[in-house]
Amino acid sequence: MILVEIDQELQSVIPVYLESRCRDCTEIKHLLASGSMDGIMFLGHQLKGSGGSFGFDEISEIGEALEHAVRVLDFVGITSAVDRLERYLERVSVIYV
To answer: How confident is the model at residue 80 (pLDDT cuts 50, 70, 90)?
Structure first.
């Protein structure tokens, strides 16, 4: 389990945010299968920007890794980043403070 402390004021938006990240995993896999690197780059950029804003620094790090993998056309790296995001989302628990 990964515990993340989040400000109580964000309690109403965090479940929606995390669910959206789960959908991103599915979307990235579809984009990879269709060869849409621009779409993956866009989602990686969103992850990088939003993760830290909501208190999920690891999501930002994964987004950055995803962007890098797309830039160098590292398909294994893209898959690895998606797998890392899925594992993170399965294990993260939020504590509102």
So the answer is: very high
As a residue count, the chain comes to 97
Domain positions in the chain are 2-96
Q: Are 66 and 43 in contact (CB under 8 A)?
A: yes
- Select 2-96's CATH number: 1.20.120.160, 3.40.50.1580, 1.10.3720.10, 3.40.50.261: 1.20.120.160
| 29-33 contact pairs (CB < 8 A, 24+) | 29/82, 32/75, 32/78, 32/79, 32/82
Amino acid identity of residue 47, one-letter, is L
Q: Write the pLDDT tens digit of every residue in 24-57.
A: 999 999 999 999 999 999 999 999 999 999 999 9
- What pLDDT score does 34 carry? 97
Single-letter amino acid code for the residue at 63: G
